[in-house]
Amino acid sequence: MPVALADLKIVSFDPKIHNVSGFDCDDPDLNDFLKNDAAKYQHDHLSHTRLAFLNGKIVGYITLLADCIILKTSEKKYVLEQLLDFHQTVYTFPALKIGRIGIQNESKGSRIGTQLLKYTIGLAARLNGELNIGCRFITLDAYPQSVSWYEKNGFVYNKQYRNPLKTHPSMRYDILKSPEIA
After folding, report:
1. pLDDT digits over 135-160, tens only?
2. How many helices (H) and strands (E) does the chain have?
3. What kind and span of H or E run contains 68?
């Protein structure tokens, strides 16, 4: 059954109160990060993890951090085509990066991952609108098996980082120009 963003309770991960030992998304790296590394990353201000709850059960998580991307000249012209000439001196663009995203096995197929993408776009909008902090893109380094899912949700390859030998290709979502995630 599809889940809507409003159905989820998304909270900051607190290892003192959230027991994540039973979390399993069928990916050992993602499971290990949540169980063993997420709290350390938060403590060291490297990233912050949020847990998604549905009916009181953890159904997924997303880890976010600050990022910036460098666009090639051809990409930059596309991004900035409607802005004034002085913006051509912009060399890096602020972004919010998805470091990890994992969905509990029993919840796969219920669109929780899609809702976490929407949540992240909403956070970027809040950075811009409420906190007056510039954020133009959502970025990530995709697992190969997830690339088509991200593309379906409006993410494109960062051309500068598109390397067929890279195991986790860099992708981006332009919060002003990408299609809305359905």
Report:
1. 999 999 998 889 999 999 999 988 65
2. 5, 7
3. strand 57-70
29 with 68: CB under 8 angstroms? no
C-beta of residue 175 within 8 angstroms of C-beta of residue 139: no
Question: What is the rounded CA–CA span in Å between residue 182 and residue 180?
Answer: 6
Report the candidate in 114, 122, 116 with the shortest Cα–Cα distance to residue 181.
Answer: 114
Q: What is this structure's pTM?
A: 0.88
pLDDT at site 155? 93
Instruction: Quote the distance between the C-alpha of residue 120 and its chain's center.
Output: 6
Phi, psi of 12, rounded to the nearest 5 degrees: -65, 135
Burial of 65 from C-beta contacts in 10 A (0-12 / 13-18 / 19+): middle
Q: How far apart are CA 108 and CA 27, in angstroms?
A: 13
DSSP state at residue 180 = P
